[in-house]
């Protein structure tokens, strides 16, 4: 499958003001708290898809003994992998859930002015078990806790996974084996 993609802007508003007399919960503070909360406590569910589990199973014979044991027994070690993979790498974590990356921000044009409006934008990638609609609702709800408005700039859902037990994928794997004998093929 190919993850869906969305670009989202979060906006915090206030009456603004001068830095000499700062009010509490300014737009930038609320945005920072929101971003920190999402980064530290992802609101998206981790789940190992059939395709990801199949990738690990297909690579198990080529792994070290410990990994061969884990990857060869995915159903037994699934809870451990769900906990550990995101800590190993961002790429490994992205295989398990919808992701959000905060990429742009804006606020005041002057250092001594509290903005009336500040924004932070993010790029999201939607995973099939929690697609575009559900993922966007989850992040909107989280943003609302901080008094933020959410604007979807662009979004499209994931593509359906390829049938890795089907004729096309089987042909693909046989062409790889024929062209590169001994090279393992793997979904993902």
Mind explaining what this structure looks like?
There is one protein chain. By secondary structure, this protein is an alpha+beta fold. 41% of the residues lie in helices and 21% in strands. The chain is built from seven helices and six strands. The longest helix is centred in the middle third of the chain and has 15 residues, at 74-88.
User: How far apart, in Å, are the first and last alpha carbons?
Assistant: 8 Å
Task: Give the amount of beta strand, in percent.
Answer: 15-25%
Listing every helix as H and every strand as E from the N terminus to the C terminus, the arrangement reads EEHHHHHEEEHEH
The order of strands across the largest sheet is: 3-5-1-6
Helicity level, as a percent range? Answer: 40-55%
Helical run tally: 7
Number of strands: 6
Protein structure class? alpha+beta
Average residue-wise pLDDT: 95
> How does the major sheet shape up?
4 strands, antiparallel
Radius of gyration: 22 Å
Q: Which stretches are poorly predicted, pLDDT < 50 over at least 5 residues?
A: none
Coarse shape: elongated
Question: How would the blueprint of this fold be written?
Answer:
Layout: E1 4-13, E2 17-18, H1 27-40, H2 50-59, H3 65-71, H4 74-88, H5 90-94, E3 99-106, E4 113-114, E5 117-126, H6 132-144, E6 149-156, H7 167-179
Antiparallel strand pairs: 1-5, 1-6, 2-4, 3-5
Concise account of the structure shown:
The protein has helices spanning 27-40, 50-59, 65-71, 74-88, 90-94, 132-144, 167-179; strands spanning 4-13, 17-18, 99-106, 113-114, 117-126, 149-156. It has 188 residues and is α+β, with helices and mostly antiparallel strands. The model has no long low-confidence stretch (mean pLDDT 95).
């Amino acid at each position: 499958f190919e993850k869906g993609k969305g670009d989202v802007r979060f906006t915090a508003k206030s009456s603004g003001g001068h830095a000499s007399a700062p009010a509490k919960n300014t737009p930038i503070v609320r945005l920072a708290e929101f971003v920190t909360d999402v980064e530290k406590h992802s609101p998206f569910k981790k789940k190992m898809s059939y395709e990801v589990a199949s990738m690990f199973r297909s690579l198990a014979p080529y792994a070290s003994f410990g990994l061969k044991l884990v990857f060869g027994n995915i159903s037994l070690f699934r809870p451990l992998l769900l906990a550990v993979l995101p800590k190993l790498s961002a790429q490994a974590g992205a295989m398990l859930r919808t992701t959000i990356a905060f990429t742009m921000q804006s606020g005041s044009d002057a250092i001594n002015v509290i903005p009336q409006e500040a924004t932070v934008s993010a790029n999201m990638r939607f995973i099939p078990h929690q697609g575009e609609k559900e993922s966007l609702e989850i992040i909107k709800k989280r943003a609302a806790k901080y008094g933020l408005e959410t604007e979807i700039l662009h979004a499209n859902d994931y593509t359906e996974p390829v049938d890795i037990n089907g004729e096309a994928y089987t042909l693909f794997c046989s062409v790889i084996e024929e062209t590169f004998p001994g090279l393992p093929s793997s979904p993902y």
